[in-house]
Amino acid sequence: MIPLEEARAHVLGRCPAPVADDVTLADALGLVLAAPVASPEDVPPFANTAMDGFAVRAADTVGAPVELVVVGTVAAGVDPVAAGVSVAAGTAARIMTGAPMPPGADAVVMVERTERVGDDRVRVDVEVSPGNHVRHPGEDLAAGDEAFGAGTVLGPGHLGVLASIGVERVPAWRRLRVGVASTGDELREGAEPLARGQIRDANRPSLLGLLAEMGVEPVDLGRVPDDEAPIERALVDGVASCDALLTSGGVSMGDFDYVKVVLDRIGDMRWMQVAIKPAKPLAFGLVDGVPVFGLPGNPVSSMVSFELFARPALRAMGGHAELDRRRVRAVVDGGLG
Known about the structure:
It is built from seven helices and 22 strands.
């Protein structure tokens, strides 16, 4: 039998390297950046307020409380220059979070520390320093700064930041298409009535779900009968359209299975007995350069084998540095048979 780490090394060593692609943000969730992404602009792009309050000259708040004349209001999205709002000595402007600082103002007093006095005046109850509650241009990111480095796994927050700096496409490792085929005349689907000796296909739904969960594109290659011609057609078609294939069943020592016959004919396969329980039998090889995983037919063994071999290999092909995302308990089998 083959030690677990030897089997994993064999699989990982034969999988192709990830392929870079130019990806839209809409298609980038879960992908890994293949290169750093720099900010094309300052963030924030202009001085703005971090609080609702009043834009003031800090010097006018010395000796607070003081009363200032309110000269206008600046809302988020409003250009105070175009609106004709500026702050001179003895005046203040009502300002909303995110709004640009009006000319002349160098600080913001939060609204909770003020009180309106009549229609056109405000009492400021605290003394503030220049820059108080002001976000300066480039404070978060300056133009040219690295927003995210190569190897970053893009989550929803990353996509939001990239959108905020005007990035529409990113260099990422391509999302994999992985085909899943079930073979066996004994397999039935859904609520089909079962004759003696027949079972329902549990592996294909499980494997398709595992693939979708990990962020690759699952491709259902369907249920294939135990016949060489349709098996070869399904495998050849799958290799032509997918980056990797998963099959289940027919990989135990001594089994005669048409999948084994076909794969030995069209691919470079290794049929292994791994020293673990469950998931001892494993087939792995390349067909026209595309990895093909022959997983055990038992549903639990199939999922364990996926976690130990297919998932880390697919993550490596997708550019992930961390290959194992789940802890799988398998007993090391020291037996010889």
